[in-house]
Amino acid sequence: xxxxxxxxxxxxxxxxxxxxxxxxxxxxxxxxxxxxxxxxxxxxxxxxxxxxxxxxxxxxxxxxxxxxxxxxxxxxxxxxxxxxxxxxxxxxxxxxxxxxxxxxxxxxxxxxxxxxxxxxxxxxxxxxxxxxxxxxxxxxxxxxxxxxxxxxxxxxxxxxxxxxxxxxxxxxxxxxxxxxxxxxxxxxxxxxxxxxxxxxxxxxxxxxxxxxxxxxxxxxxxxxxxxxxxxxxxxxxxxxxxxxxxxxxx
Length: 250
Prior knowledge:
Layout: E1 3-4, E2 8-13, H1 33-46, H2 57-67, E3 77-86, H3 87-93, E4 100-104, E5 117-118, H4 127-154, H5 161-172, E6 181-189, H6 190-200, H7 207-223, H8 225-228, E7 231-235, E8 241-245
Parallel strand pairs: 1-5
Antiparallel strand pairs: 2-3, 3-6, 4-6, 7-8
């Protein structure tokens, strides 16, 4: 039985910017495609391709964030693969709808006989609690296997074995705990990511989704620092990482 004690986040897609020849911008400084796409969109609004203030892309986007003109950030979409989060965490994540798309592992189709499980952050470090928790999830997984086997026999009259497996798994998943690990692909534009990260990286957020959000923030800051540079990661009083942002409601 595989146990996750931290999420894993991978950037799997980023924006591609194809600058039109008749609207060339006087770029200053280095930037990623997503950052330049956002700057280009902003300059279209005022036809300021000649860059009168001679700002670098980072400086331009800093001013965009400061002014709260977040609509231009919606053009830059980043796609993350997130692993090692629980079902309860993913169900909180998918509540963020505007600007996001989700594709999540299906327990109806996927065999969970060897599923992984995610230890809640609050339990980590307490050997007694961890041991009891592992015993409970192991028992749940064993119950799942038993129910699948029993239902495969009950539905033996179903000729299509693939459909029979689906019928068994969709019923057996009911005994799996919220701690069952899920894999999910999340696409979101930079504005949507900023809003979600502001909410879920905060000290008031539930610990597991906060941990996941901070991991996502680190990936996005590496990929597009100018879009996420005003987030600061720090250690809260509960000794868990969280983050605060300088520019709200961009």
